[in-house]
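Page 42, continued from yesterday. The earlier attempt failed because a stray header line got pasted into the input along with the sequence. Redoing it now with the clean sequence only.
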Amino acid sequence: MTTRVAIISIVVEESGDVETLNRILHEYSRYIMGRMGIPYEKRKISLISVVMDAPADAISAMTGKIGMLKGITSKALYARLQ
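This time it went through. Structure tokens are written below.
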């Protein structure tokens, strides 16, 4: 199975779906190498970085599920290495 290394950026603007976000991250935990969250009180948001080594379809599926949550956005940045 070919995997890709990616950094997922997540911006939480509304905390209503944070529990669902954590469930999604747990669902893909076998692919997650590390995670860092920073609350930004001045702007009332949270910023989360998730580093993954996973098949591209798993990364896309996870970011797609996260992107459907109200008040939460996500984007993936892939490393060029194969």
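Notes: Helices lie at 18-27, 56-67.
Reminder to self: strip header lines before submitting.
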